[in-house]
UniProtKB/TrEMBL annotation:
Membrane topology: Multi-pass membrane protein
Signal peptide: none
The protein's name in its UniProt record: Polysaccharide biosynthesis family protein
InterPro entries found in the cross-reference section: Poly_Biosynth_Transport (IPR050833)
Organism: Collimonas arenae
Transmembrane segments: 21-40, 46-67, 79-105, 117-135, 147-166, 172-192, 287-309, 321-344, 356-376, 382-402, 414-436, 442-461
Recorded superkingdom: Bacteria
Coiled coil start-end: none
Lineage, uppermost ranks: Bacteria, Pseudomonadati, Pseudomonadota, Betaproteobacteria, Burkholderiales
Length: 493
């Protein structure tokens, strides 16, 4: 009976966790698209810079302090209260530091208007510190439904307030009020849902006991933050708020595909790799299968965004965001490669090669920083291409090391990935030809709608011609030859 209850809780928790993630992505993007109609790129650039400091505190500080709850078999209320005390204390100190250092930071970014934004956003740091123990408690008790409801309500209400203020001419401060309202409302809802009030627990013994774990998670958080948000930070430092706003839009458009599809496939990869153990044949099959499905879903969407970026940006966000269009094309390539590299990292961890992803991440970050420092003179597109170049330089190393570990050769990889890769290449060329024919004669809305129709027809057709199913086995040369013959026959027809 207990096992059934655990299984039911796991299934329900998984469903609500997916709902939570999907709802946040969809609602946040919808609010962002509406706000972009009222606000200039500078406003979003200012918020992006301020939000980087908040993300750093969440990933490096608050998540590290909450780690003992994850590592403890049966956490008690005293441990939850200790986590609350630590997060609340540190959150108060960091919020004060952000508020009083706002002038110095705004001078560093050469943006005087950033000072007010940073001071307003400092409240969010305090709210995130106060809510972290509650979140950990709900997660540990498999109460994902409450977290999903919290996310939906807080994002929706915060977004509605932000849109109303933006339409009234509040500028960047409308975004600040939106973020602070959402985080404050999330705190209130979680407190009401959990029906638990912490006590203040200052325990030096607990701090010493878990200090090693806290430090390790914090260091991992620093590297994770640098790899996922270092590009935005570099754009802000070198090019200022306006370019950061444009880059943020391009990143949100392209990363939405990565977050929804690739992240979901990566979660699936963990149990697949764990079940395979050290069976290299099973690992090869699982890896190629997941990689094939990931590329099958991600590649056509990123190709569509890259080719039709100009009409897509004008249609959804407005003419003032048009300079972000070429950046979308560059970041589409970046996230395509990133989806493969991240899956490789998961498999390295499964094989016990924990240092490989860390070293590759440091190398990629170092290359990106060095190239950005050189190519920022060529503007935002130059910096975006430098980030892509860093991934392109690290990717062959990652793929080569993984292929050696798994015993993969080029024939196996091509056989498994030919359908999505060939289909995406043909789609890229087809959409390019379609855009050249249509953009001079029709409105952007019609061009985008027609592009969706072309993609929905052309991509599946080419995948069927190449090999309709996602393959994960080592195909023979005879099967591979038949695949190529089918493709040539289809093109000749």
């Amino acid at each position: 009976m207990n096992q059934k209850r655990i299984s039911g809780g796991l299934a329900s928790g998984s469903i609500w966790s997916i709902v939570d993630n999907l709802a946040q992505q969809v609602l946040s993007f919808a609010v962002f698209a509406v706000l972009a109609r009222f606000l200039a790129p500078d406003a979003f650039g200012l918020l992006t810079i301020a939000h980087l400091f908040i993300l750093f505190t969440r990933l490096v500080v608050f998540d590290a302090i909450a780690m003992p709850i994850v590592r403890t078999a049966i956490p008690n209320d005293r441990l939850y209260s200790w986590v609350f005390t630590c997060c609340a204390t540190v959150g108060l100190l960091l919020a004060g530091a952000m508020f009083f250092s706002a002038g110095v930071v705004s001078s560093m970014f050469r943006a005087p208007e950033l000072k007010t934004v940073l001071q307003g956003m400092s409240l969010s740091i305090l709210f995130f510190g106060l809510v972290r123990a509650y979140e950990a408690r709900l997660v540990r008790n498999m109460m994902f439904r409450q977290l999903a409801i919290r996310s939906i309500f807080s994002v929706t209400i915060g977004g509605a307030i932000g849109i109303a203020l933006a339409a009234s001419g509040w500028g960047a401060m409308s975004l600040v009020v939106q973020q602070v309202t959402a985080s404050g409302l999330a705190l209130v809802l979680v407190v009401l849902q959990s029906r638990w009030l912490p006590s203040m627990v200052f325990d030096v013994a607990l701090t010493r006991k878990y200090w090693h774990d806290i430090r390790q998670v914090g260091l991992t958080g620093v590297l994770g933050f640098a790899n996922t948000n270092g590009d935005s930070l570099l754009v802000g430092i070198f090019l200022g708020p306006y370019a950061t706003g444009l880059y943020n839009l391009a990143k949100r458009v392209t990363s939405s595909v990565y977050l929804v599809i690739s992240s979901s496939m990566h979660r699936v990869a963990l149990p697949v790799f764990s079940d395979a153990g050290m069976d290299l044949a099973a690992l090869r099959r699982g890896y190629l299968k997941i990689l094939g499905i990931t590329l099958f879903c991600v590649a056509p969407l990123l190709c569509f965004q890259a080719v039709l970026a100009t009409p897509l940006v004008v249609t959804v966000f407005g003419q003032k965001w048009l300079p972000a269009a070429p950046i979308i094309g560059a970041l589409a390539l970046l996230y395509l490669i990133s989806s493969i590299v991240q899956l490789n990292d998961y498999l390295f961890f499964a094989l016990g090669k924990n240092r490989v992803p860390v070293l590759l991440g440091i190398a990629q970050l170092t290359l990106a920083t060095g190239l950005a420092a050189i190519f920022y003179r060529f503007g935002l597109l130059g910096m975006s291409l430098s980030f892509c170049a860093a991934y392109l330089m690290v990717f062959p190393v990652s793929q080569s090391l993984l292929s050696r570990e798994l015993g993969l050769d080029l024939r196996m990889t091509w056989y498994a990935l030919a359908p999505p890769l060939v289909g995406s290449l043909i789609l890229l060329l087809g959409l390019g030809a379609y855009l050249l024919l249509m953009q001079q004669h029709f409105t952007n809305v019609i061009v985008v709608g027609g592009g969706v129709l072309v993609a929905c027809l052309l991509y599946p057709l080419m995948v069927i011609a190449t090999g309709w199913h996602i393959r994960a086995v080592n195909g023979s040369w005879h099967e591979l030859s038949l695949s190529v013959i089918r493709l040539r026959w289809f093109c000749a027809r």
